[in-house]
Amino acid sequence: MNQFEKETKQFIDELKNGVSNILVAIRVRPLSQKEKNYQNFGNKMIVLLDPDSEREDDLLKKNRLKETSFAFDFVFDKWAPQQIIYENTTEFLLEGVLEGYNTTVFCYGATGSGKTFTMIGTQQEVGIMPRALQQLFNFSIQDRFKDTQFKACYVEIYNENIRDLLTSEDKNLETREDKNSGIQIAGVTEVEVRTVSEVLALLKVGNKNRSKEATDANKESSRSHAILQLQIESKERATGIQEQIIQSKFSLVDLAGSERAANTNNKGQRMIEGANINKSLLVLGNCIQSLSEANEKGVKNPFIPFRNSKLTRLLKDSLGGNCRTVMISNVTPAVNCFEETYNTLVYANRAKNIKTIANRNVLMAQNHISNYAQLIQNLRQENEELKLLIQQQQYNLNNPQLMVNKVQNNRSLNWNLLFIKMLKISYKQKIQFYEMEEQQNHFQQNIGFLQFQKGRTQDKFEQMRLQERMDNAKNQKAIVKRSQDDLEQHLVEYEVQKVDIQKQVQQIQDSNYKNCLYGIMKQGEFKIETIEIKIQEKKRKYQEQIQDEQVKQLRTQINKQQAKIIQGTKQKLNVLKKVPSLPGVDSPYYQLQNGQNYGIQRYQKNKSHLKLPPVVQLAQVYKSPKAQNTSLTNKIDDPMKYRISQKYSSRLNRPPSYHPPSSQRKSAKGRYINRSLDLGSGRDCINKSSGEIQNEISLQKLHRLRKEYQQQRFEKAMNNKSNQKSQPSFGSKILLPGMIHKSPYLKNFQNNNEPIELKKQRLKCLI
Ligand SMILES: Nc1ncnc2c1ncn2[C@@H]1O[C@H](COP(=O)(O)OP(=O)(O)OP(=O)(O)O)[C@@H](O)[C@H]1O
């Protein structure tokens, strides 16, 4: 390795590490038909000869040095094939592109110097672009770059306008500068690409749209700067909820050539194009010069006129920023292009000094919580699937049936192998058999031939010899025949065995099939069972719902019924209430309890010392031993007549202090009972003979009233009204039939002489 090569290697290592100068290579193209002379250069050295320096008449240049030497990272002569150019300038940077380093490869040079040839190439000799793309996609297949995304855009700068080459729309695009992603073209068509052929297709489309015209210098001169840019992005999961996003840009730039109007003979539109091209290239040159000077002088944050042209704005990162950059300067050895070549070399020489600092573009992004929810969901699902798999495996291990299946499968396999072996043997033997058949035929023919010869010859000796040969052949044929018979026997045996094996295999297969069916059946049964359980559960729920509904309906029905009954009762009571009450008699009333029972709630207010039951029982007639024989009790057969059937507390259970005379008791006869007394307050006691409540005050009062009553009766009798039917009365109050008198102690008191019709009506409304 010579010194130059060592330096180159060192330089490439630096470039790979990120901090390095721009790699500058010179490519000299072969002379075209028009160009006559060419010079041969060394591998690293380019020598530029000034043809004018030899002129005798040019006194100024007479004593000047005839040659100027420049040293670059690489100089490729006209023989250098595309592959070598690619390998030495671009290939080694591609891995870095996928690792997050911005990379730019661009060609610079005069018109017709071979820039497009170097970058794009021809069908036969493909240039750097297709080769690099191919390599890039080859790398991306590797596991570590598996999830990389590529987006491609292809633009041109024509007459200081950025145009999208991937659309037919003719609109001018603008550049934007982003802190993270650097210079971006706003509104450019970005196409996601996955294969090299997709990018090449885009390249083809773009090249068609690119502005090209024929000039004197180049039959297919590019009239614009073309930039193919790949945006590369890949995500790497870091720990926690952060995610690493690796981004990079790979730019491949084919510049339009700097040109001299004199050389190209351009006029009109071509001239304007040329001027614009020159302008942008001039700015590029200025930028290169400023950067180079700043680098040499060590100026920090120098002013670089990047904004002076669209081209330099787009190449800002590539020239002075976060990028690994390769500049290939194309020159032509033609004498008439001396000045362009000289300029190119001077520019290239300056560009050598430009240093770029390429950093790996890694962004840390917070993963959105929803992504994690999705991730968790996926993992859970996966977990469930794995659990199922494990269960299945466990089941297989534990299931003897499956083990049997396995054994049987093995057996079946063995039988199959045996069967195949036998088939092979039988085929071999069959072949032997046919061979023997052929041998016998051969012997037979031989015998026939010998027979024929023997018949023809007269020579006895010869006949004997032939006979001997015939016998020999016959013997041999017999031997073959015998072994053929043996073989046939074997084959028959084999056939029998084969059939047996086939049967066995069939049986095993059948049993396997049965087992398989059994398994399926069991699974089906299990499924049916679970479904049945589910159905039962649903049925139960459904029935519960129905019952709830029925209960609801019943409740509403009952409520309606009750409301109806109450309404009806109210109406009837209203009718009953219409019964005119006499002066001094409380209004009659009925009380409904629980919607059905005719009960009388005892009024207990301020009577808590009374241990009376709250409800007076109906139809239970209490017969005191003394009253058993009275006509009163005998006559009480109406269930509506009531007595208090309860025993009372010991304090109140003392013998009543008042016993009405038996004559009085007899006279009661059940027509009316003097119990509806409004006695006011006083201690209650029981009249045991009648079973009614009385109190001390009431008894005194009763005694007094009784006297009044007797007096009244007496007066009535005296007035000859003894035949008239007695009206129930109490003191001055007269009770009418069907009238219920309200008492504070006994809620209701009813006249026994209530007419039957009224009674019926009252009972009806209680049903
Ligand atoms: N190394 C080379 N070997 C063979 N032919 C070449 C080489 N370089 C260039 N050429 C030929 O020279 C001609 C001009 O080349 P090319 O179009 O690439 O120049 P250019 O610099 O792109 O010109 P412009 O700036 O006008 O577009 C083409 O016909 C091309 O085939």
TrEMBL record:
Residues 21-354 form the Kinesin motor domain. GO terms for cellular component: microtubule. Residues 648-671 are annotated as: Disordered. GO terms for molecular function: ATP binding; microtubule binding; microtubule motor activity. Residues 365-396, 463-564 form a coiled coil. PANTHER family: CENTROMERE PROTEIN E, KINESIN-LIKE PROTEIN KIF19 ISOFORM X1. This is Kinesin-like protein. InterPro entries: Kinesin-like_fam, Kinesin_motor_CS, Kinesin_motor_dom. ATP binds at G109, A110, T111, G112, S113, G114, K115, T116. It comes from Paramecium octaurelia. Belongs to the TRAFAC class myosin-kinesin ATPase superfamily. Kinesin family. Keywords: ATP-binding, Coiled coil, Microtubule, Motor protein, Nucleotide-binding. PROSITE patterns: KINESIN_MOTOR_1, KINESIN_MOTOR_2. The keyword Ion transport does not apply.
